[in-house]
Amino acid sequence: MSATATTPPAGRRHRTPLARREARWAYVFLAPWIVGFLAFQAGPMVASAWLSLTEYDVINPPRYAGLDNYRQLMTDPAVARSLGNTVYYTVLHVPLAMVLSLGLALLLHRVGRWQGFFRTVFYLPVMTPAVAVGILFLLLLNTQDGLINRGLAGLGIEGLSWTTDPAWVMPGIILMSLWSLGSTVIIYLAALQNVPRDLYEAAAIDGAGAWARFRHVTLPMISGAIFFTLVVNTIASLQMFTEVYTMYFGNRQTQGSFSSEAATFYVIHLFQEAFQFLHMGFASAMAWLLFVIILLITLVQVRLGNRFVHYEGDET
Amino acid sequence: MVAGVLALAVSGCGGVGAGGDGGGGNATEGTLSTMGFGRSDEIASTRVDAFQREHPKVDLRITEGAFDEQQFLSAVASGNPPDLVYLDRNLVGTYATRGSILPLTDCVQQQGIDLAQYRPAAREQVSLDGVLYGVPEFSTVRVFYLNEAVLRQAGVRPEQVDLADWAALSTVSAELARVSDGRLSRIGVDPKIPEFLPMWAKANGADMISADGRTAQLDHPKVVEALTATVALIRDQGGWGKFKSFRDTFDFFGAQNPLAKNQIGAWPMEEWFLNQVAANSPDVELLVKPFVDRQGNPVTMSSGQAWVIPKGAKNPDAACAFVTQMTAIDTWLAAAQARADARRAEGQPFTGVWTGNIEADRRIFDELYQPTGNRRFDEAVDTIRSMQDAAFALPASPAGAEFDKAWTDAVNRVLSGQTEPAEALARAQREATAALDQASK
């Protein structure tokens, strides 16, 4: 039978009974997620869209306010500040996390029988509760007695005020964020292990050195994983909350002496507006602005990513 | 008054707005749910036990844990609020303005609750526009702690640490502080800002917010002066970064507290620290003085908790009975007795309980309190007792959280060197005014 004879007619796909049965089962297995999505995500999103057009304090019925909340978003300096902080964090954290994770994955890939042990070690911080990480880093970043400054003192760098100097608050948070790279490392490691060995052998036979093999074999072959982590890490960074909230805003006492405008991320400001200042309508508008920002960034990433990502089986 | 309050303790309450049965506590029944409260110690459990004894038909359901705004608002929004909420008093104004908690006027009238029994500062924090929205309990005041060991080492006499003389205070602080090789190893005087700025401002003759809680006064020159003076104390000791990072290493709850380790010379702090010292390091050379204004008159900031009944509470009658019982004088006496017994069993001194109820405090200290025999602690208790009458509190405000954020952010901006006090407080004034105006609409 020729290949031509098995090609389905253009515009219509012929599906075998097996394929149809598999599709049905796929929907059955997807059903819980779809129901959950509709009930717990799509529903609240629609409600949030409505609330963003209202003045709502959670306690009294919402009052329609048109686009007032969105107009206020555009002029509120606190929103601009928190958005700026979040973008600053994302721009630095995402590339750093990806490069470091790739480096660690490459090292792990080379480790022989101890790979399982090290893989566990690198993943353990991911299992640490975010609240604990926040508190831990408050101690590590202590100006006088923190381990980080003690280490830097050994290099001749003295007294960085990680938690009190607005210029150093964000670098401190980024440093903390690099503690939990385990998930990205595991994704890269899995991708590295899937690169066919014969490609490296063929490249080596063609005289490619280590860098050339990494540049022209490894990177293209794991570009799908890189693209995935880029998108996911960007979204997570734009929604940063727990660790920083614990460090700087966790309770009334820390809000007093720790809170810093330099640490006010967009979602933290959103949370304060919603649950502390009782501006749920405005907070809903903030949530939708963040959604649009994330959507636009992701679309740009997908558009650019399609140019660089190599998919196995892709004939182009 | 005492008789009236005692009668309340056993009669229960006729409900927030409903007619009272007036026939004793046992008439109250049904399920009663609380949020933000826990039976964490003998003070709590003794009082809860008293309520349950008096009201056996009430099915009391206590959701243990501290008050959580998100949890509370979610419960209110879903139409399933608890019957009672226990929260910080400075939140009452915000929730009252939005109608999420019920006025207790009828309950108070029908049961004849004597509002004069509550300390004025506590009462003001739970009242908005003259209407009572919460029943206050506890009255935490701030006093001035001195470490005589540190003072002696620095050649400073206790009377030289004079809170009325801010210029001299700066000099004394420099003498007490220990900075070597760029490291701060002992704080001289810690002004405890941002938290205590309202107290320093009050000592300088200014209120940071009007008595009705609706007008911010953050850019008042005397507030600016108070911030300038207190920030200078910190800047003179190496700056905020070193100061705070050193202070963050303090363990106020153990034997290695900063007093025992001579890490601090003098500082204002809540009175509960005395209990910690008494329990963990009774041999320290502690001296407690009143916090005073610039004329030398005692002044202190008070804070505490309150019971409120949310809108939509299903059993407001039982809720009213509960808060009446919990804050009744006899109940407080029983709780204080349990605390004294527990302390005695642990071999630790009983330093009193500050209930927020004037008569309960008087009877606790007249009938239950026994001087420890340790001159330092006994004098400290006397000082704290005297300070209760000099207490003020930030009044209930329709935008309490935003007001607090405005001024704490301002202080933090100054401490971190981003701006100067006048500029920071001018911006805070604008932010707080906008928030208060919006909340009052």
TrEMBL record, chain A:
It is a multi-pass membrane protein. InterPro entries: ABC_transporter_permease (IPR051393), MetI-like (IPR000515), MetI-like_sf (IPR035906). Keywords: Cell membrane, Membrane, Transmembrane, Transmembrane helix, Transport. It is found in: Cell membrane. CDD domains: TM_PBP2 (cd06261). Residues 83-301 form the ABC transmembrane type-1 domain. The chain crosses the membrane at residues 25-51, 87-108, 120-141, 168-191, 221-241, 277-300. Belongs to the binding-protein-dependent transport system permease family. This is Sugar ABC transporter permease.
Automatic annotation (TrEMBL), chain B:
It holds the Pfam family SBP_bac_8. InterPro entries: Bact_solute-bd_prot1 (IPR050490), SBP (IPR006059). SUPFAM superfamilies: Periplasmic binding protein-like II. It comes from the Bacteria. Gene3D superfamilies: Periplasmic binding protein-like II. PANTHER family: ARABINOSE-BINDING PROTEIN-RELATED, DIACETYLCHITOBIOSE BINDING PROTEIN DASA. This is Sugar ABC transporter substrate-binding protein. It comes from Micromonospora qiuiae. The lineage of its organism: Bacteria, Bacillati, Actinomycetota, Actinomycetes, Micromonosporales.
